[in-house]
Fold these 2 entries.
Entry 1:
Amino acid sequence: MEVKKERIRLETLEIPDIPEDDIVEVITNVKELLQKRAVKKYESSILKSLRELLYVHGWKSIVLQGGLTLLVALAVWLCLPNGYKMNSVAFLSLGSSLLSVAVTVEVFRCDIYGMKELEMASPYSPQRMLMWKMLLLGGISFLGILIIAVSISLQTDIHLLTLLYSGFIPFLLLNAFTLHLYAHDQVLQVFLTVYGFAAGGLVLLELFGVGYWIGFLEQYGGQLFLAVLVYSGYVLWDHCRRNLHV
């Protein structure tokens, strides 16, 4: 009975019309509250982007991380056993995989600190700074891999290109795959799985099949390296495209 009475009251309830001016005023105020700050997504100069990168992250931090990356690369080479003629390729592949961890740590650190939330309110673009920092550390890591590859090639009869393929392919592939997962918010979930399988596979390769790996790289290394470059280029392009729509 009470429910019926309440229903009758609702049916007879008169709601006054809201003045149109009040509606316009509310919408105007909401738009002002929701208006985004201008975010600088593009840079006309690469040097200007690098200057902002050094200003935001500090040149000491870049130099320290770059130095540690090179030390890891050199340590991998110095720790090679006496009979490293065959093991050097596997060690180089494993070392380059470890170097990629130094770069992807930046992805995790920025993700944990709320990089995507800062993107909308920051006067500069944190996502762009992250990409530049990854590229900078990646370039330093490439230099470390190149030093190791040249050093080994001078002391063995393994072709320099084979050594470069063994170092660059895992490094590029793991970094591109991590950045690809980061764009789809899946990087933290599968990080340990990806690097666990990669490191485990390279260790098994070193113990049981280094000769097969060298032969594979000598025969198909160029095609595989080209495919990895195309995939890495696509990931970078997709990352930039997504930033345009943030």
Entry 2:
Amino acid sequence: MLRFHHTDPTYPAFSIFACLGFVLPLIPLSWHMQAWNSGTCWYIFWSSLSCLNLFVNSLVWAGNTLNVAPAWCEISIRIIMGASVGLPAASLCINRRLYNIAIVRSVVVTKAEKRRTVLIDSMICGVFPAVFVGAQYIVQGHRFNIFEDIGCYPAIFNTLPAYFISAMWPVIIGLVSAVYCVLSLRAFSQRRAAFNQFLSAHNALTPSRYLRLSALASMDLMLTVPLASLAIYINATASPVSPWVSWASAHFDFGRVEEIPRIIWAADRGTRMGIELTRWLSPMCSMVFFAFFGFAAEARKHYADAYHAVADKFWAAGGLLGLQRPSSGFFAKHSTPSPSHCRFGEPKIKAKPTPLALSLPIQFGVGIASMTDSVSLSTTSRSSVADLKRANSLASSFPGQREDTTFDHFPDVGSPSTATTFVVTPGQASSLPVERPSQPHSPVFSVHSCSTLHSGRTEVSGYNASYLTYPQCGRTHV
């Protein structure tokens, strides 16, 4: 049995970095999909796919040039071809999106506009690389090459059409991306107020994320254009450019596979530089991407949530085996602050004057009415009906009266018997502690027309109880 020993001085370091380059960019993928960052998603796709391909090649062909997986090599060389323009194209889409944000003319972005952006990005980052890969057959001299310690590699022979079909496109894409980058920086400096207004209206895109996207695209731009230009220079000077004779001449003996030992390809300085730079570029792009987005505040929050979810399941399973979870320290159960922690006289939650996303009608003595209809009712009425979706309109429905509405937020069952009453006034909010009833039942929402209704004050209560009683108020059964 033959034994092969690797001669690559970077082995296994390259394999480790390629594996990390495949895994790490996938971690924030779901966050960018939720934010409709299609250009960033394509960047993740191409960098991860390229690193996976390089990782497999570095293991299979470490120290040998045997054609042990011809079908894989057919796939591998097309991944290499596609990634050579897919990564610059994704960077172009990122810069294009940043430019469109910087020149924003409308704060609201409709779903139709988002879908159109995704479609355009998919054409640039998906369809164009596929067409590019298909066109490489024109200048593909034979099936593929196998470089020792590198793996499968496209066999593009050095002829003049190859520079127009293959070599020039990364440079062109990089230059177009550079134009977008400069224009976005210029628009950002000129329209900063509109830019900040746009970001404030879109939770998925924060100023921090915008700057990180800009830095990622700019860094990728600084890598793409110089390296692609260097590759063109090396190809043009390392060996003579062969003339294009005919299709039959270019594809003569197309099925052959050239196996090139390291001692041969590494002896030529230009070939060695071109192969190694191309090889390390994809892991570098993946690491740069993760450095920008893998340690951000939202990423750390997701890591903490994932850890606590796994830890809860682990300790739940461990409890069946008699393991007891520590009450303090790193492995303690994670808890989040809740309104039940508020003490009497020390309110900690400030209500915002926004509509409640709940609607629960309550039977009125003579019919069904909404909160806004309660204006026409007698001020001595003991109960009314709440359409909580329109709760904020109540304050303005008492002309000449006090414009405030009181919402009571009660903590869950089992928490201390205190609660916070939110007195919502247009433009401001204050809080007052109230006493909590003691009988826990299913959640209900009720409205009390108190004796103070003449002053424009109505108390809207949400609490796990069958009824609520207030001083000077009637009792509403639910």
